[in-house]
Specification:
The complex is a heterodimer of chains A (306) and B (390).
Chain A: H1 3-33, H2 41-59, H3 62-83, H4 93-115, E1 131-135, E2 138-141, H5 142-164, H6 166-176, H7 178-183, H8 188-210, H9 220-235, H10 240-268, H11 271-296
Antiparallel strand pairs in A: 1-2
Chain B: H1 2-18, E1 28-34, H2 41-57, E2 61-62, E3 65-73, H3 78-90, E4 96-98, H4 103-115, E5 119-122, E6 139-141, H5 148-160, E7 164-170, H6 173-185, E8 189-196, H7 204-213, E9 217-220, H8 224-236, E10 245-248, H9 254-260, E11 268-271, H10 280-293, H11 299-317, H12 325-334, E12 336-338, E13 341-345, E14 351-362, E15 368-380
Parallel strand pairs in B: 1-3, 1-4, 4-5, 5-6, 7-8, 7-9, 9-10, 10-11
Antiparallel strand pairs in B: 2-3, 11-14, 12-13, 13-14, 14-15
Classes of the chains: A mainly alpha (306), B alpha/beta (390).
């Protein structure tokens, strides 16, 4: 197997994993601190992508448009928290699942009404459209490298924010024991609004960056949300470090599975069988991974210490 | 009092007699199920717009009958399509069903339509199942059999002498038909045959495999949003210039070119239809389509247009008598004038026609369009008709 193929697949896995991390980071904090199952997290990613497509179209600049979309999605997140989610904290998980599932339907229909049923197309910024030589025989998309850079940068920033600042301390306190943190005077309610808005902003970053690679369309949040939940469960609920490592593991395993499993199967079975079995097995792979992790470490790989 | 009642009765009877019910031939009802939202929407919308344009050109009449069209969006989901078609057959009592884009959707509803003795006139989906053993007297495809455009490109790849090829398609009936079609005429070595999930949008893993396999050519069947993404990512990976990308018309038509832009220039693709096919029907279709919808029509639009022409031709042949089903079928199969000239059909309901080589080109005015480069097949049918007992 040539080195360039392995390197390219690792880069693909890293790129996908870091985008999953941006979604999982908000999700894991919301689940860890307030114990809320928010299925509508993927909708914030969709809203972010649509707003990015719109602002990029209006301003004519990819980066200005994306920045505006991130800010606007944070506002949407804040409004959502204040108006709807706040009422769900005291309810049980089933109620939260039902209510946030309803939010998915409302957001999807709302987007359809505002932007229409067509997928929106975003282009890679022209300065990043050319491939970059990573190895002598491998030119890798400059845009995907930028995504990797942005994802790593945000991961480091988030890590410093959570582990080195006062608000980060509050967040960690809330994640390990909400009642105790509240008793010690942590303004949990305000912290949570900020966390939710930040989570929404991270979703928008992912939506804006993935927009030119994928397509901006109704329902784009649902398929990726499942993977984000897998990341949260593997990494340990409420843990940023867990979300980062879990996301990279899931991204790499998913990409590698899609790339290498069919190649392995072709040696064992006929191309017909291999081509049917390969994608099916590859999509099972990450759930298998989740089951194994949960079997040995039911709290996830990096549980929040209590 | 009694006289008064009789007078009312007479007036009522006069009113009833004056109503046109039963006096004129009824309108023909068409159930139009298509993919109008999601990643395949561009295809369904093109078929719909082409179909509507033909209806307008025909004065909103088909074979002299008034037309009523019932439209439904299948969301590219077989279950949604089943519900919509069931409603059309039972509640709306449509005379014809048309419009379906994706083969897996058509295969989910076909039996239901045929069992109801209703014609399905396909403007797109042409699964091999309905061409062979499961061929049906109530099925006609006015466009092509799923394998056809791929057979043409396979033949072209063979003529160009590419020794090795890497071939890809989505994992669904038309995807498997596509690669089988390509392999039927391509005699070089297929280094890898990859099937991806239907609707997949990130092809980074597959593109890495292509780069590692170093084939002489790549053949990829990806319609709609899948095609837009595959082509964009293939170009961004810098492969467009290193390994020639061969495409069926579905992956390189106006809908895809609009979205991908300049990286598409130079790509060869196969099609049964082209903008510059020279006949009065096509010229009127292309000019009026551009004027009406303000965009270049893709091959799907021509197929939608031709589906309406098929209905008009058939209903004209039976004098608007919807009961003469065998004659309706016979009239379509005998051939009629389309945007591609006169097209005849095999006994399985699939066309026998020419297939062309096209190349994407940038015009001097900056517009990027497909240009005809030659003919690959003349009077080409499909590989399955021998197994059809009709």
């Amino acid at each position: 197997m040539p080195l360039s193929l392995v390197v390219e697949q690792l880069l693909n896995g890293l790129q996908f994993g870091l985008m999953l991390f941006l979604l999982a980071a908000g999700l894991t904090l919301v689940l860890g601190i307030m114990d809320v199952v928010n299925l509508a997290h993927g909708s914030l990613y969709m809203i972010g992508a649509y707003l990015a497509a719109t602002f990029i179209g209006v301003t004519g600049s990819f980066w200005v448009g994306a920045a505006l979309a991130v800010a606007a999605t944070a506002v949407v997140g804040t409004l959502l928290e204040v108006s709807v989610l706040r009422r769900l904290y005291a309810r049980d998980h089933l109620t939260q699942v039902l209510a946030t599932f309803a939010l998915i339907l409302i957001f999807n229909e709302g987007v359809r009404i505002v932007w229409g049923p067509h997928a929106l197309l975003l282009s890679v910024p022209s300065e990043l459209a050319q491939p970059v030589r990573v190895l002598p025989d491998l030119g890798y998309s400059a845009y995907r490298l930028t995504i990797i850079g942005a994802g790593l940068g945000l991961a480091v920033a988030l890590f410093l924010l959570i582990h080195r600042t006062r608000i980060g301390m509050w967040v960690r306190a809330g994640a390990s024991n909400r009642a105790m943190a509240q008793a010690m005077g942590v303004p949990i309610r305000q912290v949570f609004t900020v966390v939710f808005a930040a989570g929404a902003a991270l979703c928008a970053v992912a939506g804006a960056l993935l927009g030119p690679i994928l397509a901006v369309q109704v329902g784009m949040g649902e398929s990726i949300l499942i993977l984000a939940f897998v990341v949260v469960v593997i990494g340990g609920i409420g843990s940023i470090k867990g979300a980062l490592l879990g996301a990279i593991v899931v991204g790499t395993v998913d990409t590698a599975g899609r790339a290498f499993l069919p190649m392995l199967l072709v040696r064992l079975a006929s191309p017909e069988v291999a081509s049917n079995l390969g994608p099916a097995l590859a999509s099972i792979l990450i759930y298998l991974l989740m089951a194994i992790v949960l079997f040995f470490r039911p709290q996830g790989l990096f549980p929040v210490r209590i | 009092m009694i006289g008064c009642r009789i007078a009312y009765l007479v007036v009522a009877l006069l009113v009833v007699a004056a109503l046109p019910v039963g006096a004129q031939p009824r309108a023909v009802k068409i159930g139009f199920v298509s993919t109008l939202s999601g990643g395949g929407a561009a295809l369904g919308i093109d078929v719909r717009d082409g179909f509507n344009l033909a209806l307008r050109h025909l004065g909103n009449r088909l074979g002299g009958l008034g037309v009523e069209v019932v439209v439904a969006d299948d969301e590219q989901n077989p279950e949604v399509a089943r519900t919509a078609v069931d409603r059309m057959l039972r509640r709306d009592r449509v005379d014809f069903v048309t419009g379906i884009i994706f083969s897996n959707v058509l295969l989910a509803v076909g039996e239901m339509v045929f069992a109801n003795q209703t014609f399905y006139i396909s403007p797109n989906a042409g699964p091999s199942e309905y061409a062979g053993e499961q061929c049906n007297p109530f099925f006609v495809n006015v466009a092509w059999q799923n394998d056809n455009l791929h057979e043409a490109m396979g033949h072209h790849a063979q003529l160009r002498g590419y020794e090795t090829a890497f071939i890809l398609a989505p994992n669904y009936p038309a995807g498997r038909d596509a690669l089988n079609g390509f392999k039927r005429f391509y005699k070089g070595r297929v280094v890898s045959e990859v099937y991806t999930r239907l609707g997949q949008l990130d092809y980074s893993a597959e593109i890495a495999q292509i780069r590692a396999a170093r084939p002489r050519a790549v053949y990829a069947f990806y319609p709609g949003a899948m095609g837009v993404n595959f082509n964009k990512q293939y170009a961004e990976a810098g492969l467009m210039r290193e390994i020639p990308l061969l495409l069926p018309g579905f992956s390189a038509d106006a809908d895809i070119i609009r979205a991908v832009g300049r990286p598409m220039v130079g790509v060869f693709n196969s099609s049964h239809w082209a903008l510059e096919i020279f006949n009065p029907i096509n010229r009127r279709f292309v000019e009026d389509f551009r004027r009406t919808y303000n965009r270049v029509p893709a091959l799907y639009a021509a197929q939608g247009y031709d589906a309406a022409l098929a209905l008009d031709h058939a209903l004209r042949a039976v004098g608007g008598d919807l009961g003469r089903r065998a004659d309706i079928r016979r009239a379509i199969l005998a051939g009629f004038d389309t945007t591609r000239g006169r097209v005849r059909f095999n006994r399985n309901g699939y066309p026998i026609q020419d297939y062309y080589l096209r190349q994407v080109e940038e015009q001097t005015n900056g517009e990027i369009v497909n240009r005809l480069r030659g003919t690959i097949f003349r009077n080409h049918g499909d590989a399955y008709v021998g197994r059809c007992r009709l």
